[in-house]
Specification:
It is globular and about 50 Å long. It contains eight helices and eight strands, in the order αββββαβααβαββααα. Helix 1 crosses helix 8. By secondary structure, the chain is an alpha+beta fold. The model has no long low-confidence stretch (mean pLDDT 95). 39% of the residues are buried. It has a single domain, classed as Class II aldolase/adducin N-terminal domain (L-fuculose-1-phosphate Aldolase), CATH 3.40.225.10. It has an eight-stranded mixed sheet with strand order 4-3-2-1-5-8-7-6, with helices on both faces.
């Protein structure tokens, strides 16, 4: 199963991700962005147009940008920060075929702390052991290539960036894998924030058990595809207009 094998499949899968992210409250107004390299291409990518609410995103709404930020397919405009963050990360990091940027609440809450670390205190968090970069250099809005390049360099070979005082960036070799990480990241952060709110010390999982459990979680490469496919099935039944 490959939901993103061609441009039309990629459009449908990405539109579904937007719709489901809105259901989960990951969106913020009409801000934040998901982008996906066009299948078989390294010089252009799909991204959401500015002004379209995630809960109403359709496959046909998504635009294709080239390396210069010009729209080559679709209509509308793309928010400036979307170009400067997403394209610079895509071009610099081969493993970042998909780039998801949100201000989802629990993860963003941790990025607002003096110590923003995701602690190994629950099973959902274990999958992110040594996969997270903590970027504490908040520079305001990303409005130039230099800031996008700085973000890409800071992320390096990892998959998740906690953007200090800002939000989160999750990248992956496919939309399905990046989406799966985005979902479980917010669940892990929600658990941690709720546990911290009790005022009782957190109970860390021993490192040896963390690494062994992480291998068990990540050894199924098809889980993300099945996860996203299941969401698409629900949307087909409840909101089939996302495919238009």
């Amino acid at each position: 199963m490959n939901l993103e094998s061609d441009i039309e499949g990629a459009r449908v899968a990405l539109a579904a991700a937007f719709r489901w992210a809105a259901r989960l409250g990951y969106h913020e107004g009409i801000c934040n962005h998901f982008s996906l390299m066009v299948p078989g291409r390294d010089d252009c990518f799909l991204i959401n147009p500015h002004g379209r609410h995630w809960s109403q995103m359709r496959a046909s709404d998504l635009v294709v940008l080239d390396a210069d930020g010009a729209i080559v397919e679709g209509e509308g405009r793309v928010e400036d920060t979307a170009l400067y963050i997403h394209w610079r990360v895509h071009r610099a990091l081969p493993h970042a075929r998909c780039v998801l940027h949100t201000h989802m609440p629990y993860t963003t809450a941790l990025t607002s702390l003096e110590d923003p670390r995701l602690r190994m205190v629950n099973q959902n968090g274990v999958r992110f052991h040594e996969r997270v970069v903590y970027d504490t250099e908040y520079n305001g809005l990303a409005l130039d290539n230099a800031e996008g390049d700085r973000i890409a360099a800071a992320l390096g070979g990892r998959d998740v960036m906690f953007m200090g005082n800002h939000g989160v960036l999750v990248v992956g070799r496919s939309l399905a894998n990046a989406w799966d990480d985005l979902y479980y990241l917010e669940r892990a952060c929600e658990n941690q924030v709720l546990a911290m709110s009790t005022g009782i010390p957190l109970r860390e999982i021993p490192t040896q058990l963390v690494t062994a459990t992480q291998r068990q979680i990540l050894e199924d490469p098809g889980y993300g595809e099945r996860h996203l496919s299941a969401l698409i099935d629900v949307l087909d039944a409840e909101e089939p207009g996302f495919r238009q």
